[in-house]
Amino acid sequence: ASMAWWKKAPKIEEPVPKNMLMASFDGLQEIFLESESWAIPLLPFHSSFLDLILALDTCASYRRHMGKNKHPWLQVFISCAVGTFGGTTVAALFLGQPPGWMGSLSSPFAFLLAFWLIFCCPGNVPYKIISRHRSVELVFGYINSFSCGHATSSWGADGALNSAHMVVGSGPMAIFCGMIAGCGGGILANWLGMIGKSSDWMFGTPPVLKGPSITVRTAFFASCIYYLLRNPHEFLPYGKDALLTHDQARTCIWLVWVLVLSLHELLKIENPWQWLSRAAGICLLCPDEIGGAPEDGVYEMIFGTGEKETHDAALSGFGFDKKEKEEKKKGAKSD
């Protein structure tokens, strides 16, 4: 039917063609968003594929650290569970929420399957495939980058931003939850001595904090980048999600993990974050190791050396026992 002459024909807007870069990014974004729902094939029910790969990698790492030693199965089970789900669990506890992986049978079954394949499977074929082929470990690393991307964004930072508590308005809490969800399992396992090198659990300084590992650095910087991209509290001049959409920001965080893994494993760059760490250290006048006895400088030129205090104040965070100090003085005089 023809349209009357006094009515304007509706303007049909033609879709703006996307360049190749944006089209590729959209494709990667679709893959990343779908990865959260990937299921283990051949099962009659849904069980998380990403959790299976993460648990396989964690259990294989624990068994590798065991060497020729054997540990009680319950101890190994708990240790591997902490290494696999410890990060998101700590983030959830800080937010007063139940751990997300306990919300259904999907993740627990994936962990049980991985545990059985690594420690109980006849012939130890799965463990040998993972531990004796570097290419398999590399593939596992790239698959785990999906989990790291989701942990830093959806399961960590977004968990804090969507919380029902007052913490929803806290930027530091969002960054902390994003970081700890991405690397907390390793920190917690190292802190408790649950990495397989010893059958005895003991508290100790995690090696990943003495010299921050690539995982810890990446989790921290990725969480900061995610917060800056989203600007959820509009702390910065641009508005919330003004730079990228929520899903685009999540995808960028996954690509950060992929980039760091590629630089480290393929290009053999020991610490891809070294330049940023050094730049921050220079700007903040903060070297890698701090503390120690201060050297003489401007203060001594103005006020002189004087007598240095060797004990803490009574109400300081590292308080001291005066009685113990007085007894030492008496013992020195009697000698």
Portion in beta strands? under 5%
Number of domains: 1
**Terminal-residue CA separation:** 116 Å
Give the tally of β-strands: 0
**Structural class assignment:** mainly alpha
- The poorly predicted ranges are none
Helical amount among residues, as a percent range? 55-70%
Q: What oligomeric state is this?
A: single chain
Keywords: Membrane, Transmembrane, Transmembrane helix
What does this protein structure show overall?
- The protein is globular and about 80 Å long.
- Helices cover 59% and strands 0% of the residues.
- It starts with 19 loop residues before the first helix and ends with a helix.
- The protein has 335 residues and is mostly helical.
- The protein is built from 13 helices and no strands.
- The chain has one domain.
- Helix 2 crosses helix 3, helix 2 runs parallel beside helix 4 and helix 6 crosses helix 7.
Give the arrangement of secondary structure elements.
Elements: H1 20-35, H2 49-66, H3 73-94, H4 106-119, H5 125-132, H6 134-161, H7 171-191, H8 207-210, H9 214-230, H10 246-265, H11 274-283, H12 298-303, H13 322-334
Transmembrane segments: 73-95, 101-123, 135-153, 173-196
Region (Disordered): 316-335
Biased composition (Basic and acidic residues): 320-335
How is this structure best summarized?
The protein has helices spanning 20-35, 49-66, 73-94, 106-119, 125-132, 134-161, 171-191, 207-210, 214-230, 246-265, 274-283, 298-303, 322-334. It is mainly alpha-helical and 335 residues long. α2 crosses α6.
